[in-house]
Amino acid sequence: MSAVAAPRASALIFVAALLQTAIVSSLVLAGGAPDLLLVVVVCLGLLRGSVPGAIFGFAGGLVVDLLTLDTLGVTSLVLTLAGFCAGRYGETTGRGSRLAPLVAVGVITVLAGLFGFTLHYLLGEAVVARDALFTALAPALVMNLVLAYPVHALVRAAVGERTTLEPSAEVEVVV
Question: What distance in Å separates the CA atoms of residue 88 and residue 49, rounded to the nearest whole number?
Fold first, then answer.
């Protein structure tokens, strides 16, 4: 990542985390709220790759965990995996696709909801599956999909795209 893009992406993640905790999480429509930080992390992963996506996902999740005084590390872990998966999708299958932001945000929103529910369950926290996986996830998915293209355009304008793409590693079958 260039010397100009890294501070811009860091500032973007910090502002998105602040907006998520202060404003966006309280915009509950039909039982669910959009996840602006998740969409920003997915877009950064798509544009910059898997390692920067994971790093920025961890940083944004840590800021959210510290601001909300929630269980430390749960949001960080979920967003780290979201950024990494979005980066891998952007490096391989989604390279050059116009639908990549929409597909990545949709799939990763559902997977992040499932993974977050599983983590809370494994930690012994009281989470109702119906509320977490159906009542809240469906409206959040729709709102995240609405945010996908505008946020992707904003992130692209702020940090740009990768200028060099490493070719995928060749696989050799040894018999």
Answer: 7
The answer to whether position 175 is within a domain reads no
Specify the CATH number for the domain of residue 57. 1.10.1760.20
How far apart, in whole angstroms, are the C-alpha atoms of residue 174 and residue 45?
A: 33
Domain count, the chain: 1
pTM for the whole structure = 0.85
pLDDT in tens, 18-58: 998 988 877 888 878 888 999 999 999 998 888 999 999 99
**d(Cα 68, Cα 64) in Å, to the nearest integer?**
6
Q: Which of 50, 169, 164, 25 is nearest to 104 (CA)?
A: 50
- Angle of helix 50-68 relative to helix 36-48, nearest 10 degrees, comes to 160
Q: What is the pLDDT of residue 64?
A: 92
Domain span including residue 56: 5-156
